[in-house]
Amino acid sequence: MPNQSTPVLELKGLHKCFQGLTAVSKLDLNVFNNEIIGLIGPNGAGKSTVLNMIGGTLKPTKGHIFFNGKEISQIPAHKRAKIGISRVFQANVLFRNFSVLDNVLVGMHLQSKVSLFRVLFQRKVVGKEENKLRHKAELLLASVGLDKCFEERACNLPHGHQRILALAVAMAVNPRLILLDEPFTGMTDSEVITMMDLVKKLRIEQNITCIIIEHNLKAVMGLCDRLSVLNFGGKIAEGTPDEIFNNPIVTEAYLGREEEEDVA
User: Fold this and answer.
1) DSSP-derived pairing of the beta strands 3-18 and 62-67
2) What residues have CB less than 8 Å from 24, skipping those under 6 apart?
3) Which is it for strands 62-67 and 70-71: parallel, antiparallel or unpaired?
4) How do residues 66-106 score in pLDDT, each as one tens digit?
5) Is the pTM value of this prediction over 0.85?
6) 2 pLDDT band (50/70/90 cuts)?
7) Of these four, 83, 183, 203, 261, which has the most CB atoms within 10 Å of its CB?
8) Which residues have a Cβ under 8 Å from the Cβ of 68 and sit 6 or more positions away?
9) What confidence score (pLDDT) does residue 120 get?
10) What is the spatial distance between Cα 147 and Cα 23, in angstroms, rounded to a whole number?
11) Does residue 13 come out as left (phi exceeding 0), alpha (psi in the -120 to 50 range) or beta?
């Protein structure tokens, strides 16, 4: 169960405007160690904007973001990756013509002093540290079920395997917090179950904390410890999946919308 003593991530009065239009307004949110929390709400509710501010691709107009007690509101995305925040994007952000193994090695380079060029292109002259890094990448891929395709080009993998590879690349930086941006996009039902099981496994085995945005409401309800519901940029409810599902405010603003509308 999540440890709710000190938050891993704190959002305080987070606010984002685009040319005078408010996308996120006065958002407070605490995320605790080993917790899986979902951000849900109608389209345009501000979920992706929040994730972008946490990840560092957007800076807040107002408010503060704290990670492990230190403010990170203004530091760039690559520095956030180095301190333990990684992300799985909605699209498969991979080096498509690199091998599966090399994609993970690129991710590991952020946390390593080993030359990326030597690891990728000078394999015949690599030393002890390079071999150690490669072995670590192989173990990571084996842990997510991709141990049979180390040398396969990423672009040749089935879509579901590409999504799993994107998760492995995110894990390659030794994160404490992973931001999952619609991780189940385009997956079959069986692939969704596999990805859900992997996220749960990472939480148990590597003490990972996750924030997830996802269209698949059934998967979110089955995966998350707690849900935070956004509408028009503000938080309207927070609680366990059961509490949120039975909340009349959420039913009106989110769950009760037109059935043909997307629900995230």
Assistant:
1) antiparallel
2) 14, 15, 16, 46, 49, 50, 53, 60, 230, 233, 234
3) antiparallel
4) 999 999 999 999 899 889 999 998 877 788 899 999 999 88
5) yes
6) low
7) 183
8) 8, 83, 84, 176
9) 56
10) 42
11) left
Are the CB atoms for 200 and 223 separated by under 8 Å?
yes
- What pLDDT score was predicted for residue 261? 42
What mean pLDDT comes out for the span 226-255? Answer: 89
- Angstrom CA distances, 43 to 37, 62, 99, 163, stand at 18, 23, 35, 23
Q: How many residues does the chain have?
A: 264
What is the CA angle 158-262-51, rounded to 5? 75
Angle at 33 between CA 27 and CA 38, to 5 degrees: 50
Q: Where are the alpha helices (DSSP H) in 96-148?
A: 100-109, 116-121, 128-143
Q: Are residues 40 and 227 in contact, defined by beta-carbon separation less than 8 angstroms? A: yes
- Distance between CA atoms of 5 and 243, rounded to whole angstroms? 22
Which is more confidently placed, 190 or 123?
190
